[in-house]
Amino acid sequence: MSPTSNAPRSLHDLQNLLRDDIKVKVAGIDVDGVLRGKFMSKDKFISAASESDGFGFCSVIFGWDIHDQVYSRELLVSNKGNGYRDVIARVDLSTYRRIPWENNVPFFLVSFFDPDTKEPLFICPRMTLQKAMKEAEHHGWQCMAGAEFEYFQFKETPHSIAEKGFTNPTPLTPGMHGYSLLRPQLNKEYFHALFDESVKFGVPVEGHRTETGPGVYETALAYTNAARMADNAILFKLVAKSVGMKYGIIPSFMAKPWGNLPGCSGHIHVSIRSQDGKNIFAVKDSELKHGREGAANEDTKFLSKEAEEFLAGILDGLPDGMPMLVPTINGYKRLVGGESFWAPNAVTYGYDSRAASVRILSPPSVAPSATRFEIRIPGADMNPYFAFSTIFLLGLRGISKHMSLTIPPVSQMQSDPEKKKAVTKLSTSLEDATIKMMKPGSVAREILGDAFVDHFGGTREHEVALWNAAVTNWEVERYLELV
């Protein structure tokens, strides 16, 4: 993992770093991308950090859902059959930072390992991403990523919204005011605290603004290596929710809280660099004038051959990888609107196109060193570790298989109705997406392994079962009186 600038590099460093502290906060990540953690005494923490086996952490965090309801069927890691036994949690010293809004208490992330084999736990989000990072390292490459979150702000507390039955939340500000210079003045202390506290917490922010929609902000996190980016993405949500509590505000990363308004995206940007920092996706300097000879089309002529193969790999595996990009029931409601809400729901790509699922950013719109892909499918409710893992593993699979682009860009589809009709649509429900992911021989099974797909797929089947059994306000309103 990429270290924070002042991370301890030895046990001696750690002891010096914590000499004036009495406790430490640690956290790991569950399958829904939720931080699960606790306080430890300084002595217990230093002891755990100094031991290669780490410390025991109840495996139930992989055996229950986002509301601590035990999964409806036995899964591979945590279940009644093994007594919800401990897995191993190992402290990642490189993730050290202090929590500025919590008396500067020291904070570290942990990763999870199998207690029998001592190997990385296959369902641990941080370890899943490490699989993709190691795959790139075999080529001498480094995975790079960025994340942008759109999220609503509601003038609510956990108690007030519960008392309202989680209906009609009050937006922090009215109206649709993207890029507004006026709206942030209405809650300027909160707006600025989101940026400032994030930076103090070791989560650099690249951009921070209002997005269209009542009370919607967008925050872009600074581009870095994919492992650090996933950590930063998870930790930014912690920042936002913690700062929001102080001001009586709930920032929501739910993908589609309003039926008649645009949803909240979690766009991710990806590229690959060589060990000397060269962008593998960029074309050679000699190709900057006319583009690369042999490119699939005009939209990809300023991409390297490896980038084009990476893109082909993403497009080939998107249908089977959807639950890792859009893991919630609600996330698919965002995709139903399709291009009308800039939430693409098909296997498409295009040069600098926000109507495509994969937006190509390359010369002349950006410098060669900034050449990258923006994956526009995920919502703000994504688990960034699983989303990044899937995109990089699909792309690297495309490179290893030397895949060719077999579909045209969206620019060609606009002028050719037949090409537009032939486009592959992505799942618009978690149930359908999970079936595709779990089918024998799926691309998801190829890149992530059967154990991961069976366990994670089981958690998604549980989510679907709860949704299918739910009676919604829409149903009651529509049918109670008149049918």
TrEMBL record:
SUPFAM superfamilies: Glutamine synthetase, N-terminal domain (SSF54368), Glutamine synthetase/guanido kinase (SSF55931). Keywords: ATP-binding, Ligase, Nucleotide-binding. GO terms for biological process: biogenic amine metabolic process; glutamine biosynthetic process. Pfam families: Gln-synt_C. Gene3D superfamilies: Glutamine synthetase, N-terminal domain, Glutamine synthetase/guanido kinase, catalytic domain. One of its GO terms (molecular function) is ATP binding. InterPro entries: Gln_synt_N_sf (IPR036651), Gln_synth/guanido_kin_cat_dom (IPR014746), Gln_synth_cat_dom (IPR008146). Residues 125-483 form the GS catalytic domain. Belongs to the glutamine synthetase family. This is Glutamine synthetase.
